[in-house]
Design brief:
Shape: globular
CATH architecture of the largest domain: 3-Layer(aba) Sandwich
CATH topology of the largest domain: Rossmann fold
Number of domains: 2
CATH class of the largest domain: Alpha Beta
Length: about 280
Amino acid sequence: MKKLKRSARLVEMTEFLLSRPHTLIPLTTFADRYGAAKSSISEDLAIIKEVFEEGSIGVLHTLAGAAGGVKFMPKLHKEDALSFIQNFCRQLEQSDRLLPGGYLYMSDLLGQPAIMNEVGKIFATAFADRDIDVIMTVETKGIPLAYATGAQLNLPVVLVRRDHQVTEGSAVSINYVSGSHKSLHTMTLSRRALKEKSRVLIVDDFMKAGGTIKGMMDLLAEFDATVAGVGVLLESGTVDSDERLLTDYISLAKLTAVDSKTKMIEAAPGNYFND
């Protein structure tokens, strides 16, 4: 039991909530922790709730009753998310990102925790109302994005491998077609990694026609799992609609034009901002 001034208690309660997103916390947890009456704790939570919502940090949901409590859900206002993505697009448009073969260098952006945390918060906002059990991505560039999203939703992450690892135990493997040359690839998932009938949120850093994500969806069918949603950080806007293998997905940014000769790159906010 801690006896703290109210100002200190507010700070500590805020940190407690931020570190436990999407977790129901009974009021008795705070009352016992600080030796305070539930009425005082409720007043504190009302203050925190107001600050969270005004600052585009998230929302506090209150559940009444004996089994009730409070649950913090990260939420980024659409206008704040748009401002962040517009800045992200400006970084993508740097001409030195264009590599031979028309590939776009993104590893430095994917390696910045501050950027990934914001992207994770946007996905947590977009998919907050979905019933999700686990986050899935394919190695390797999607890993930072998956863990950032998992942290914001308080969900575990499952990694699909390109090659089977002996330390993964028995696994399910499938072949899928991906890339502009329609080449055949293999992906594999340990049988222990995912429970059957799980509801899965797929996230990926980049999508062209959607072959890799379609492969993950086919792999999930082997586990009798359900795709609860698909989130893509960056999609290619240069793919014809009849070549696109997916229609139901959320993208945060879109490549609208790429010219290898002039090293011109144009990017814009994705379909998440179309509403």
